[in-house]
Structures
1.
Amino acid sequence: MSEERFDLTVRNGRVVSEGQVLLADVGVRQGVIAAIGEGLVPGVRDVDARGRWVLPGGVDSHCHIEQFSGMGVMGADDFYSATVSAAFGGTTTVIPFAAQHRGMKIPAVLEDYARRAREKAVIDYGFHLILTNPDEDTLSRDLPQAIHDGITSIKVYMTYDRMKLDDHQLLDVLAMAQREGALVMVHAENHDMIKWLAQKLVDSGHTRPKYHAIAHDPLAETEATNRAIALGRLIDTPILIVHVAGGETVDLIRHARTLGAKVFAESCPQYLFLTAEDLDRTGLEGAKFCCSPPPRDGASQEAIWRGFQDGTLVTYSSDHAPYRFDETGKLPKGEKTTFKDMANGVPGLELRVPLLFSEGFLKGRLDIHQFVELTATNHARMYGIFPRKGVIRVGSDADLAIWDEDRETVVRHEMLHDQVGYTPYEGRLVRGWPTVVVSRGRIVVEDGMLHAARGTGKYLARGTPDVSRNAPAPSERMHERPQAGFIQSLLRRDAKAA
Ligand code: URP
Ligand code: ZN
Ligand code: ZN
């Protein structure tokens, strides 16, 4: 009796599955990986992956889609263009932000983002919540409800006038996260250092984009990161520092982890492949490279690579922030725009994984397993969607990217699928590209063509983040805090009262 056919069989690829490279087929039924092995029965659709890598589809856990920024600017990509763009770059899951701005109620914010994504996304998605108003109702009612509904991570800002929380508020949020089992993501920059420097620069006529990197001095990042780590340690709650840019910050996080701090960290393509010199291009061109924190220097790039190699940095995300080079984004005041006026952020959803494949894996800085962890698996674990996402395993969603490592591409914005109008990586040679991308068993991209309809991506109600696999290894430097138990007893008392 012949075995029932698969819906899709991916044949003869180099399949990267849970720390192994297998020369194998992957059989898919009803959107789920049903078998991994040699000589599987045919699929209704057979894809020959001979000579190519079969990797988990990427998970991008930091991207801004159809979102008002901290400065109140709407990005150029909606849930359709952003998810199409992600899919073409080998990403099959995104976790963008639902952003609360002051005065907004969280249930309404979440409903608004959910509706817009439901109508447009072509790949699966979850949400983090950006929190700007941690008042009593929010902490005791709205956030627990949101976490229960699968929004199990919250981003907080230590800077931006319209977003920043003070340390007291941050502790309230961390305590709530501990109680409810959520992960707090921290944008760590010292607000007053930046504001003070920016004012001095503008007052003295230094307004070009390159001064953005001076205003956002690396010390502003290290100071705030150090403070965030201390707040997390005070009440023994994990935090994840997003978009780490500076070498000193990487060293600080590594050191804190040796002391036993539950600090996790992310970095992004802009900190590996751009530097502050890019902000000094002719005229206002440098605005295309302005993000916060800004790209630093070669030494910081090397430190970020080391951070990825030794596990200090656990996720590699795009921080896609799609602002056009016109009055809707980067140049609100035209030629008169100063670095203080321009929207912060750079696009990167589509090129995130190809850049790391080319420069990380193919150039020998990362092995294939590190590459997969940094682009997919660690995101899934840290944000509560593992093993459904981020891994090639029987029972997991069939989210796959088939990579041709010989394909060479010179990056041009015209070939990308976002709405930004430029890419900071214009003209770069990238080796390797995902030629076939599969989301829940559906071929969504093949040979440069999109095969997914708008609205076919599914919402992921995420579970409790699992930080254990990326936690610091025990070391003799681990520092016991004798008063920690007493602080925990205070928090337990509050939890009972809640
Ligand atoms: O400059 C950046 N990173 N813009 C996006 C918003 C954020 O803070 O992540
Ligand atoms: Zn941020
Ligand atoms: Zn961001």
2.
Amino acid sequence: MAPPSSSAPPTNATPAPDLASALQLPHRPRRNRKLPAIRGFAQETWLAPQHFIYPLFLHDGVGNLPIASMPGCQRLDMDGLLAEAEAALRDGVGAVVLFPATPEHLKTAFAEEAYNPNGLVQRAIRALKSRVPQLIVVTDVALDPYSTAGHDGLVGPDGRVLNDETVAVLCKQALSQAEAGADIIAPSDMMDGRVAAIRATLDAAGYTDVSILSYTAKYASAFYGPFRDALDSAPKAGDKKTYQMNPANAREAMRELALDELEGADMVMVKPAGPYLDVIRRVREATSLPVAAYQVSGEYAMLKAASANGWLDERAVVLESLMAIRRAGADVILTYYAREAARWLREDDSPPAG
Ligand code: PBG
């Protein structure tokens, strides 16, 4: 019998005579794919708006500014941020992560603006928490937006990125974000020992309920290019290979994971996501903590550009890429597509036609 197509009901149409003798196959996996409801029984992974964290760029001016290499994303002003956050919540996305663009004149060698209680991020957190208190606010801990050198850490006289001196500044930054009302602190800097130091700082100040989502396995990836355009935060000299991980390494991610667990991380992250699905899987199997993955700016830009050219079907490839990240083992996905994907998923929730 001819296999029914996915949309048509099964028929008993007589097969063509030359195909009439059925193969004696004991196993026919296609039986579990023959109709939408049966595919539903067999489905192993789900994608829903509750899995998304929505990254937002802010700037301290008036009006929302486009980002050339990330069409559809903007550097938002304060009103734009609040409007986008409310819209995200309406779309079912429960969390945002904030990335500020710092004007050149506020960048310094010691990145003091990172812990200015009236800095852009600190004001944004307070505004979000008073306007949309249900929305979870995640903040990034790293010095690159605030440092003249454009590195995630302080740079010594010989050009090296200093670890322990940086951790002291990261603690001040994390504390100022917690004081402003951040729910989750996400250190993306990859300095050694920063999770333990931030945890101790937060606890000593009474912020025992503020979570740490550690960028556990953050790779020295070329896929961050558009993000650095968006924030004008590319390193002025050198690269980030002395602190971010070598893309060739997966075992090393297990070591970072073990340390982050010991240091008190509440959730762990792999970044980028799509090119590092094997790392997501290994982290998933090695930890009982929630695992996040960051579909980064370069992944977004690739999907946008190919779709804009008509080379890929945007909705289909975006949902497939996000499902693949979930299948690899991510509980949570940071994605610039959070709002659109949430809307597409809601449309998909309408009962299947066939
Ligand atoms: C900063 C930071 C980066 C990203 C998140 N936090 C850039 C970098 O490390 O250079 C990248 C996010 C993206 O590309 O979407 N520490």
3.
Amino acid sequence: MVLLDRALTRCQDPGRGVVAESQPKVLISERDIQRRVDELATQISQDYADQGELVLIGVLKGAFIFLADLARRLTIPRTIEFIAVSSYQNSRVSGAVRLVMDLRASIAGKHALIVEDIVDTGHTIEYLTEMLKTRSPASVRSCALVRKAERAQVEVDLDYLGFDIPDVWVVGYGLDYAERDRTLPYIGVLEDVEADT
Ligand code: IMP
Ligand code: MG
């Protein structure tokens, strides 16, 4: 229904396509994503070998698919946790982040890896890293599938990165636009959406 709505909107818009053209344009193919997730999993498994259990912390909602694929490819002992944050939309403080759902388990004494879908301004990953460091983990590192390097407002030390992308709004593989397109197997661009958040 949602897709149909969008298709209809475009049909009524002069110069826009019909239903078949309403899919986001491929930016990173399913094959390229899978190959890169394989590489990241190999690297992470090597880096944490013989260090005990790794706690993977998926940032909801966007990271759920990336986390699922990455976690299943690791060869080291691992557990899964989730955390949710949201950006203050109308705040006078630019880039302020709010914790919406906390971890259920303690990470004290454990190695923690934040798994994010996308790093845009960098505020979310910076907030999470600083917050988790206060909980006495053995270490906190971060992993993101994509990054919009030219949008950075704070310097973020990502330990693992899938792809750098230009300043465009992307959907698919967990990422959404107004909750749409999260389950696309590839990362695509909605050509009429401006990346302005
Ligand atoms: P940051 O705090 O500005 O780095 O924003 C990170 C969050 O913004 C991500 O976790 C996403 O939820 C959201 N976001 C930023 N850019 C995009 C995009 O292109 N597509 C979908 N979500 C995005
Ligand atoms: Mg996210």
